[in-house]
Design goal:
Blueprint: E1 2-11, H1 14-31, E2 40-43, H2 44-50, E3 65-74, H3 76-89, E4 98-106, E5 111-119, E6 125-129, E7 133-135, H4 141-148, E8 156-166, E9 176-179, E10 188-193, E11 196-200, E12 204-205, H5 216-227, E13 241-250, E14 265-271, E15 274-279, H6 285-300, H7 326-332, E16 334-340, E17 343-348, H8 351-361, H9 365-374, H10 389-398, H11 404-411, H12 414-417, H13 419-437, H14 441-455
Parallel strand pairs: 1-9, 7-15
Antiparallel strand pairs: 1-3, 2-3, 4-5, 5-6, 8-11, 8-12, 8-13, 9-10, 10-11, 14-15, 16-17
Length: about 475
């Protein structure tokens, strides 16, 4: 789910070589025991061998060499659902497609004591009570805060980040490219990601919407920016998927200087009983949660029985996992059993599928493999991708997967990897979910429509609107 990835920065003059090399060595020193691997310099020839599509010449200068440092890369959809399932395993009540519509207040004490919640699948509305509510709604946190106090000062300064996905040949399998400062002062990167190449990003002011869409000029900016550093022609027709996300850049409402915008997280309490945490990033998610819980303990005058337990906690499926775990799947399972002429012929669990299952589900991958083998759900959902039909059934049974969009975007990353492949896989995904959740034909039709509307917000080369 998470691994170290070397990232290469091209240097076009010797000053850049020295400048970036010294900066990365300082980075190594500060990281101390948390350092993944030591950074280093590579010559021009070594750099091109490591990154074959790297351009030796820029528009007005020649490549001198590169510096490489290591960063962490993760599968965010799998990490996110892993956190929810780990919490459920520890006793948390986890709801999916549940929306807070209002707060319950003790008017005498002027304190929030719970929330009214709507199940957006069944439409049922119910009340739940709590000693304290934590608002961790990302870019939507201000709308939650206004439920408690209408005249609250906004915290969120939303920023749009656009990414594009390209075929795997744009980048090597185990090396990324990052340019800390392009000619117009922006950061550009290109990384191998789940068998494809992801490139980005933009950083623009935006308005908050549930389904943000990338603009064609933003997509073209990224393609133009990476083309300055590649020897291969960067084509708009190669874009498999493009999407926009919203960064919840935050200001502290209690700070005197309201102009300061932070990429760090902010914790505050605008109304008694409501603790808000926003801002931050995936890298610091655990410490963010700890800060939010500590604030909740203080606000609610709670008495925890233990200290923080998450410092060294492994997520569900992580205990006992080893990099060689995929070999167990290849040796002990078949993807499915076919019948030919009255004979049962097993179809092997190939290495690509086994590695995918192992990295996505950890030691729980054997449960997915068992479903594939015993329930004839071992076919691939989309040509060229390792996702199996069995994953849809498993996610419906064990990971709160309640819709087609849940699977293509929030349990797997198929929609983000290849929009058109996700579109083609929808009928089979919905068929499996229908069997798991007892959907009638009307519900299946609605699911297909909702999923197609969702995919229309992505801009692949086939569904893009060209000027």
């Amino acid at each position: 789910m998470c691994h170290a990835l070397p990232c290469m920065t091209p240097c076009f003059d010797w000053f850049e070589v020295v400048y970036y090399w010294m900066g990365l060595k300082l980075y190594d020193l500060v990281a101390g025991p948390r350092l993944l691997h030591l950074s280093r310099y590579y010559s021009l020839q070594e750099s091109v061998e490591l990154f074959p599509t790297l351009a030796k010449k820029g528009k007005d200068r020649n490549l001198k060499g590169t510096v490489v440092y290591y960063d962490g890369q993760m599968n965010d959809s799998r990490l996110n659902v892993g956190l929810a399932c780990t919490a459920a395993l520890a006793g948390a009540a986890v709801l999916n497609h549940a929306e807070v519509v209002s707060f319950l207040k003790d008017e005498a004490d002027e304190r929030i004591i719970g929330a009214r919640i709507r199940d957006n699948i069944s439409g049922r509305v119910f009340d739940t009570y709590a000693k304290l509510v934590v608002n961790a709604a990302g870019p939507f946190c201000d709308s939650i805060r206004k439920m408690a106090k209408q005249d609250v000062q906004p915290m969120i300064c939303p920023s749009s980040g656009v990414h594009v996905v390209l075929p795997d040949y744009y980048s090597p399998e185990r090396m990324g490219l990052i340019v800390p400062k392009t000619k117009d002062g922006r950061v550009v990167f290109m990384l191998p990601w789940l068998g494809r190449t992801v490139a980005g990003t933009t950083d623009s002011n935006t308005t908050i919407t549930l389904l943000p869409e990338p603009h064609e000029d933003e997509i073209q900016f990224i393609l133009d920016a990476i083309s300055d550093y590649l020897s291969v022609k960067v084509r708009r027709a190669d874009v498999l998927s493009a999407w926009s996300g919203i960064r919840p850049l935050a200001t502290d409402p209690s700070a005197k200087n309201t102009e300061s915008i932070s990429r760090d997280h902010v914790v505050c309490e605008d109304y008694p009983g409501l603790v808000t945490i926003t801002g931050g990033k995936w890298t610091t998610y655990r410490s963010m949660a700890q800060d939010a819980v500590n604030a909740a303990i203080k606000s609610g005058n709670l008495s925890p029985t233990t200290g923080c337990l998450t410092q060294n906690l492994r997520l569900i499926g992580g205990d006992g996992w080893e990099p060689s775990h995929f070999t167990v799947l290849t040796q002990q399972y078949v993807r499915m059993k076919k019948t030919h002429g009255g004979k049962v012929v097993p179809v092997v669990m190939d290495t690509a599928a086994a590695k995918h299952l192992s990295h996505a589900y950890g030691t729980l991958a054997e449960r997915v493999a068992t479903i594939a083998q015993n329930e004839c759900l071992g076919k691939r959902l989309a040509h060229g991708y390792p996702f199996l039909e069995a994953e849809v059934a498993y996610c419906a049974r064990h990971e709160y997967c309640e819709s087609a969009v849940d699977f293509i975007a929030r349990r797997s990353r198929l929609a983000f990897l290849d929009t058109d492949a996700a579109n083609r896989a929808l009928p089979r995904i919905i068929e499996i979910l229908a069997a798991e959740h007892n959907w009638d034909k009307s519900r299946q039709k609605k699911e297909l429509q909702k999923a197609k509307e969702f995919l229309e917000t992505f801009k692949s080369s086939k569904n893009a609107q060209f000027p």
